[in-house]
Amino acid sequence: MVNHHAVVQGINLESLVWSDGEKIVPVDCRLSAKAEDNQTKNDHARAMFSTAKERGFEPELVMVDSWYASLANLKQLRSQGWAWLCRLKSSRQVDPDDTGNRAIAELDIPEAGLQVHLKGYGFTNVFRTVTPYGDAQHWATSQLDMRGC
């Protein structure tokens, strides 16, 4: 590999860490350069989830960025018996009341959260947080008993 002494587009370091809220422990990492290995960030994430499971990790909750909130990733976490929490893009399709899918941003979500059917996955709890500047973020979890503030 060539050392460019600068940021190189298309090369990313992905890491999987464990934390108890105080300590952060690296579990796995992958250097991804799609041009070299033809693997996406999500392919690497699923491989790291599998490796962590093989190593005996049993997290209480897996938190991932919205980039990793693909159906394949969430379904793998479910198949491994792991609960998850992630941000969803505002256009993500959910069905709150058996009347059809719509963008999560269109929903009136109470502070305690709302149980919805996530298109292609199944039932989840969703939450909305709003920054002081009015920017909304949407969150989802597989833990159906989780409640917001």
Please characterize this protein's 3D structure:
Helices cover 18% and strands 35% of the residues. The chain is α+β, with helices and mostly antiparallel strands. The protein folds into two domains: 1-58, no CATH class; 60-149, no CATH class. The strands form two sheets. It has a seven-stranded mixed sheet, covered by helices on one side. It is globular and about 50 Å long. The model has no long low-confidence stretch (mean pLDDT 90).
* Low-pLDDT regions: none
Distance between the termini: 48 Å
Shape: globular
Strand order of the largest sheet: 3-4-9-8-7-5-6
Helix content bin: 10-25%
The proportion of residues in beta strands is: 25-35%
Q: Provide the residue-averaged pLDDT.
A: 90
Order of helices and strands: EEHHEHEEEEEE
Extended strand count: 9
How many H/I helical runs?
Answer: 3
Radius of gyration: 17 Å
Structural class of the helices, strands and pairings? alpha+beta
Number of domains: 2
